[in-house]
Design goal:
Blueprint lengths: L6 E5 L5 E6 H7 L3 E9 L5 E6 L10 E2 L2 E4 L6 H13 L8 E9 L5 E10 L11 E7 L1 H8 L6 H18 L2
Parallel strand pairs: 3-8
Antiparallel strand pairs: 1-2, 3-6, 4-5, 4-9, 7-8
Length: 174
C-alpha cells in the first residue's frame, strides 16, 4: 500500500472523528486529520534534524526538527508517536515518547491537522529510513537556531517548534 492509500481518521475543529479518507485524498481536499510531532534528542541533548526526501507527499526536500507523521485510522496519538519515531529514526525499543501538548495547525491555505507534540530521548544508534530522510544529524540548540535562518523548514514543524519553545518557557516561569 502506498502512503497516499493509507486510511486516516478525518476530524472536526474539536478533534472528533467525522469520517475516514485515504491520505492522498485528505491532502488533496484539505480534510482535517491527525499528526504527531516527536522531538528526538540524543544522550547529549542534541536535537535530531533531517531533510525530507523529494518524494514526500507534503513538504518534500524541506528540513524538519521533528520526526513524526500522520495518525492512522483508529490509532491513538500515543501509539502513532512511538511507531513514527521508531520508523523514522530506524530503531526498535525506543522509550514511549512523552506527550507534551496538542494544537490545531492551519496554514490558511487548506492544510489543517490536529498536531500532538511529544519528546523522546534516543540513546540508540539511528538508521533513518532512506524513503523518508535524505540527510540527518543531531544538532545543538544553538545550531538549530542558526539554521532556522539559513534552511527551508517545513511550516508545520516550525509552528510546532515555536509552540514548544513557548510551552517550555511557560513551564520555567511557573
Amino acid at each position: 500500500m502506498s502512503a497516499a492509500d493509507e486510511i486516516l481518521d478525518i476530524v472536526d475543529e474539536n478533534d472528533q472523528v467525522t469520517g475516514q479518507s485515504p491520505r492522498g485524498e485528505a491532502y488533496a481536499r484539505g480534510l482535517r486529520h491527525r499528526c504527531v510531532f516527536i522531538e528526538a534528542r540524543d544522550a547529549e541533548g542534541r536535537l535530531f534534524v533531517h531533510r525530507r526526501t523529494p518524494g514526500k507527499l507534503v513538504f518534500p526536500s524541506l528540513y524538519d526538527m521533528f520526526v513524526g507523521g500522520v495518525v492512522g485510522a483508529g490509532e491513538s496519538y500515543d501509539d502513532a508517536a512511538l511507531r513514527e519515531a521508531e520508523e523514522e529514526l530506524g530503531v526498535t525499543g525506543l522509550p514511549r515518547p512523552e506527550y507534551l501538548f496538542k494544537f490545531l495547525y492551519d496554514d490558511g491555505a487548506g492544510r489543517t491537522w490536529w498536531s500532538a507534540v511529544y519528546q523522546v530521548r534516543c540513546e540508540l544508534p539511528v538508521s533513518p529510513q532512506t524513503e523518508e530522510v535524505a540527510w540527518h544529524d543531531f544538532l545543538s540548540e544553538d545550531e538549530v537556531e542558526l539554521r532556522l535562518r539559513e534552511w527551508q523548514w517545513v511550516p508545520d514543524g516550525l509552528a510546532a517548534y515555536e509552540r514548544l519553545k513557548a510551552y517550555r518557557s511557560g513551564l520555567s516561569g511557573a
